[in-house]
Amino acid sequence: MTIAAPEQKKEQYGDRPTQQDRDRPREQHIRRRELAAFLRSRRERVTPEQVGLPRGPRRRTPGLRREEVAHLSAVGVTWYTWIEQARATHVSAQVLDAVARALLMDPAERAHLFALAGTADPRTEAECTVASTSALKIVERLAPYPASLQNARYDILAANRPFAQVFGDPAELPPAERNCLWLLTTSERWKRDFLDRDEMLRDLIAKYRAAMAEHVAEPAWKERLNRLLEVSEEFRGLWERHEVAPMSPHVKRYLHPAAGLIRLEHRTMWLAPQAPAQRVVAYVPADEDSEERLERLAGLSEG
């Protein structure tokens, strides 16, 4: 006689909320409160005279009234009030853009506003592409080691003389091509002289995909991606793998036409982790032979 096993209840794992799911409403509420507090602080800082409004004799508010901000930004008074009361569940990029303009926000304040709202900034110019004097000094003082200043998209904002000697001078390229991912994909010189170029390209594409997750709707990031997808079948194939990778130090082998084989360790120092994010990327010799060849290259240039 065969006894049937009792029927086991099926677990609906897909319906079970994770801890992350349970924490998400609380995180969103905190973000809404921070956004509301930030807007109130910016509103109280702007005087009526700064935006061309009369002060009036009965003004109690230290800065602008909510109604005035709503009028200046062409946003409904009720909706703007809800935002400042942390009641608005989602604020569009258009509303944030209008409010940032009305409150005379500088680039750092604007970036903070969009970050709190969890919304991508539609303005391409929102990310700073200008190198500060202090950042330029850091890059220059790293000589004789090649170094450059880059943003989160791997655009080369500045480079020192050793970088130009080893990898080519970015200043000689059109602005749209001063990008490490673009050069590694399209430059014949980089394809030829980086001995580990294929592996480097896969790794850099994976890093770009990981970084782009926070900027997926931003025009500048999409424009860079679309240009690469258009010009390179190799890039399209690697991009479709959906691989991601973190930032990490590693050694690059570079065969310079005059100096010979140079092994360089890739090191990164972030100057600003949030937008506008910039980092100093230095290439430190991985051995004594590489150090001597870099010094020899510097000497050839001086001569």
Structure commentary:
The longest helix is centred in the first third of the chain and has 27 residues. The protein contains 13 helices and five strands. It is elongated. A hairpin with a 4-residue loop joins strand 1 and strand 2. The chain starts with 18 loop residues before the first helix and ends with a helix. Helix 2 packs across helix 3 and helix 11 packs across helix 12. The protein has 303 residues and is of the alpha+beta class. It has a five-stranded antiparallel sheet, sandwiched between helices. The chain folds into two domains: 90 residues, 434 Repressor (Amino-terminal Domain), CATH 1.10.260; 170 residues, Beta-Lactamase (2-Layer Sandwich). Helix content is 48%, strand content 12%.
Question: TL;DR?
Answer:
The protein is α+β, with helices and mostly antiparallel strands and 303 residues long. It has helices at 19-45, 66-73, 77-84, 93-102, 107-117, 133-141, 161-167, 180-186, 188-193, 197-212, 219-231, 233-239, 288-302; strands spanning 147-151, 156-159, 250-256, 260-272, 278-285. A hairpin with a 5-residue loop joins strand 4 (260-272) and strand 5 (278-285).
